[in-house]
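A reminder from the course coordinator: this example appears on the midterm review sheet, so study it carefully.

Given structure:
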């Protein structure tokens, strides 16, 4: 199971005050206890949003202005492989005749446009119009890029004033995170980074699964088997302790259906405020979150708030009442149901015959409350592809009851599975592959490779951790989120492939070279003018480095980190090509200084782009 979105908690706000007190002593995660606290979080995030625009005077901005003059809105991208030029205007959306007429007009009139001195030449190649920039344009772009502070690299103001709420990770309490949680957790984090780099205000929310009948199951299992020596041996790892109890419950319940009735009654007691049930719930939640935070810290994951399903408990009665007014809603054997007219949506259970709500009802309650408290322009649900039907039903209800107003939207960023040899990845025991086990598998192999490369013992452990996390993150985000990815340990750790370690290794290599040259690793300042006629590979490297803000914008527009991951791999390739074409150690002093500045910029662009992907550059590889 990837998420709690099949059964999860609710509770009253007084209980949040009690349970949060114990958690706040040992964690930095924020659990709001009231709407006022959430409003304060939201306002603080809005106040922090601030960015710097780079692209107004960049070459790509000029090209877009050219397109506007010729009455077209066409994509501008890097030139396809094996073609010449610096940027390509993509003509696919035009008919063959329109392509011909557009290119003919541009080629005839482009020199008549005063500001188009930025273009050296233009060439039609199939469905592309390839533009080559003048050398002065490349330097101007690069100098504008250098004028940014290190914190502003890769930023632009394309989403300034927009508010996004990103719902990601969202595990159940009392269970271990497994590899199925990896996609929603990593992609949600990276998308949030990218949106913020486009100066959007981003609210990062962990919609924790902290309510539902499984709490009743755990309570029954705890009372029956929780005090045995075997269970005591697991008590230092709450996820293993509670997961074992949960599994034991289901094993016994196969033979004893009475257990399920007991679990329902235990959950009803929890809903009714029974003090013993509440105390047990608080214990499970507190211990689970403390353990979760340790793993999140290792992964570099952060949230603005944990606002789990329990927070919306008091809103559920009015939510059910609201939904009863839906034109396609009805009651069937005491169950509240919406039978959507659109056959693709099917039917949605709102309230069960025993009065319990469903996870769809709780998501609807959350959507209404989020509109009230955050006023987001866009809500992103970063969860598995298998929840697509649930998302379609949720969005239909949100539209019907105007939880989404004009200009606002909700998106399901679907996450594909991590597979191994085409099958769902599992642990050595055949069950779900625990996330920590997955990370340790990658880290162990990364450490072996670094040891083979001669990394010193004092740097080995820290570098292995960074390389392992870089491999895991890059592997997850290098393709569209919905496509999933295939786990191949050697491939994801390949220092020469399209991998995180390849990009990291390029940055480490440039840093090492600059140290040998006694060149500072600090970012290049705008005062460090570039006046040299660069070798072709360095010319291309300048163009690639200055594209980072454009690519970050592209990733935000597509709601996918993969354009940024693809760009960083291309930038690493361009860096290595330049490095090999002109060896700085053999260059004279002035040339070396000039080329070193380009490599310094490449290093910081790689380092910052990796940071947006939540990847660090190791000290040694």
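Designed residues:
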């Amino acid at each position: 199971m990837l998420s709690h979105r099949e059964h999860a908690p609710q509770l009253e706000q007084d209980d949040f005050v009690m349970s949060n007190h114990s958690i706040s002593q040992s964690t930095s995660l924020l659990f709001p206890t009231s709407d006022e606290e959430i409003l304060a979080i939201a306002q603080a995030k809005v106040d922090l949003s601030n960015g710097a625009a780079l692209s107004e005077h960049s070459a790509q901005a000029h090209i877009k202005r050219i397109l506007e003059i010729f009455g077209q809105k066409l994509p501008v991208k890097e030139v396809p492989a094996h073609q010449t030029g610096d940027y390509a205007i993509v003509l696919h959306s035009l008919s063959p005749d329109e392509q011909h007429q557009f290119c003919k007009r541009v080629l005839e009139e482009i020199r008549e446009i005063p500001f188009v001195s930025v273009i050296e030449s233009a060439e039609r190649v199939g469905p592309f119009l390839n533009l080559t920039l003048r050398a002065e344009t490349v330097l101007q772009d690069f100098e504008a890029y250098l004028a940014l502070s290190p914190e502003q690299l890769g930023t632009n103001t394309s989403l300034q004033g927009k508010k996004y709420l990103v719902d990601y990770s969202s595990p159940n309490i009392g269970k271990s995170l497994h590899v199925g949680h990896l996609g929603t957790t990593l992609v949600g984090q990276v998308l949030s980074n990218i949106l913020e780099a486009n100066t959007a205000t981003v609210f990062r929310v962990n919609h924790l699964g902290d309510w539902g009948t499984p709490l009743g199951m755990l309570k029954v299992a705890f009372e029956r088997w929780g005090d045995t020596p075997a269970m005591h041996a697991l008590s230092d790892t709450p996820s293993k302790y509670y997961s074992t109890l949960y599994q034991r419950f289901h094993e016994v319940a196969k033979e004893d259906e009475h257990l399920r009735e007991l679990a329902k009654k235990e959950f009803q007691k929890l809903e009714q405020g029974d003090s013993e049930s509440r105390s047990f719930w608080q214990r499970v939640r507190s211990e689970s979150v403390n353990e979760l935070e340790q793993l999140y810290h290792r992964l570099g994951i952060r949230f603005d708030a944990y606002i789990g399903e329990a927070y919306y408990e008091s809103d559920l009665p009015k939510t059910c009442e609201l939904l009863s007014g839906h034109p396609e809603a009805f009651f069937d054997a005491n169950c509240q149901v919406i039978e959507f007219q659109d056959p693709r949506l099917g039917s949605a259970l709102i309230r069960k015959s025993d009065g319990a709500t469903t996870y769809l009802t709780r998501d609807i309650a959350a959507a209404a409350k989020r509109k009230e408290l955050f006023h987001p322009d866009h809500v992103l649900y970063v969860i598995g592809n298998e929840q697509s039907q649930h998302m379609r039903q949720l969005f239909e209800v949100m539209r019907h009851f105007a939880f989404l107003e004009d200009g606002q939207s909700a998106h399901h960023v679907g996450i594909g599975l991590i597979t191994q040899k085409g099958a769902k990845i599992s642990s050595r025991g055949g069950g779900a592959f625990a996330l920590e086990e997955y990370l340790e598998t990658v880290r162990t192999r990364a450490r072996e490779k670094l040891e083979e490369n001669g990394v010193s013992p004092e740097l080995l452990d820290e570098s292995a951790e960074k390389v392992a996390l870089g491999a895991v993150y890059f592997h997850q985000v290098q393709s569209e989120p919905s496509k999933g990815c295939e786990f191949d340990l050697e491939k994801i750790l390949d220092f020469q492939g399209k991998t995180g370690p390849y990009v990291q290794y390029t940055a480490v290599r440039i840093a090492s070279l600059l140290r040998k040259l006694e060149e500072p690793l600090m970012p290049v300042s705008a005062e460090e003018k570039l006046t040299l006629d660069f070798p072709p590979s360095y010319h291309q490297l300048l163009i690639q480095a200055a594209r980072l803000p454009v690519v970050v914008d592209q990733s935000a527009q597509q709601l996918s980190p993969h354009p940024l991951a693809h760009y960083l791999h291309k930038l690493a390739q361009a860096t290595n090509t330049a490095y090999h074409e002109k060896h700085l150690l053999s260059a004279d002093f002035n040339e070396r200084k000039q080329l070193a500045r380009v490599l310094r910029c490449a290093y910081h662009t790689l380092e910052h782009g990796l940071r947006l992907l939540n990847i660090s550059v190791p000290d040694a590889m």
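The first helix runs from residue 13 to 24. The chain has a mean pLDDT of 85.
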